Amino acid sequence: MKDLIGYQERTNWMGEEILTLADIWPDQPRAMIVGLNPAPPSVEAGHYYQGRSGQGQLRRLAAARLLDMPSGRHFEDAVLAAGVGFTDIVKRPTTGEDGVSKAEIAHGSGLLADALSARGVELIVCVFRQPVKALLGDEGSPGIQAKRTPWGAQVFRMPGPYQDAASAAVAMQQLATVWSTMNRTDTI
């Protein structure tokens, strides 16, 4: 049996033993970065978002000051230092959303909503569109969603990796403003 590296974990997902990435929860999570499911290269490396698109999305989050930019490819320490964590709706790795079933999304959405609610997470950052649809019932458009979760958390849908720069900047500014307000409120 292979030794685990980074944030790899072996777990049971809907009756099947799999190798995946462990959820990364800060002690007091203020925000969680949520993906649909981990990509095989990320699981193999033991770190979240190791592909080109994922790395680009995390750099956008650093530019919006949600977290500090790390010196390498691994963002886990930077998100934890900011009171942010990583998780996915579906734990089984696939190369794309086509490999994820509706049953897996339904199963994982319920588990995720329970975990986020129990920890009082205030802001959910969805790296791609699918987690927004799973949590709110509609994929929305990039930016802060009008609808909140049942426990009152705001949901932010990141712009796609190939979205035009101007509209991506508008969406990311919304996140920067919400995050700045959350930080200001906590210090008063």
Automatic annotation (TrEMBL):
> Which of UniProt's keywords are assigned here?
DNA damage, DNA repair, Hydrolase
Task: Write the lineage as a comma-separated list.
Answer: Bacteria, Bacillati, Actinomycetota, Actinomycetes, Micrococcales
- What is the protein named? Uracil-DNA glycosylase family protein
Q: Which superkingdom, per the lineage?
A: Bacteria
Q: Known SUPFAM superfamilies for this protein?
A: Uracil-DNA glycosylase-like
Chain ranges of the Uracil-DNA glycosylase-like domain: 26-138
Q: Which Pfam families match?
A: UDG
